[in-house]
Design brief:
Length: 180
Amino acid sequence: MISPRKVSMEELNRLSVEEYQIAPKHSFVFVLDDIRSLNNVGSVFRTSDAFRAEKIFLCGLTGTPPHRDITKTALGADESVEWEKCADVLELLARLKTEGYTIVALEQAEGSTQLQDFAPDQNQKYAFVLGNEVFGVNEEVVSQSDICLEIPQFGTKHSLNVSVSAGIVAWDYVSKTLKS
């Protein structure tokens, strides 16, 4: 039996920042609305890099690079992933809809779609909206969304960390669209 060994950084053969920026992306963006923790913002940058998201929109009070707390958790992804600061999330969502995006709020809501039942269309673009760590996605944003997507939970807590939610949804989306 062969015992496993850890793969070296060189063997991983990752893209350079320049190669990443011109590489094809998956058809989704993240919209971060009023995210207080700059560490969460950095983590979403890192996740976006890992799954080749098109872009991150930083709305409301969400902090922006350059900032040491974002950089600390992004580990350089704040330089590879395209991002844009938007003051008004509702204006952004209206713009994204005109650009052909389906707006998906990650929220526990009446009539929400459970993540395991989410069947993304490979030919559709998606904007996944992540809300404030305490209050979640704003009610006005929920009402402007095409889908409310809920990650099933089985413990005592009512929610997941926002960056953990981003990772789960990005993996789910990419794994489902790569199969089709």
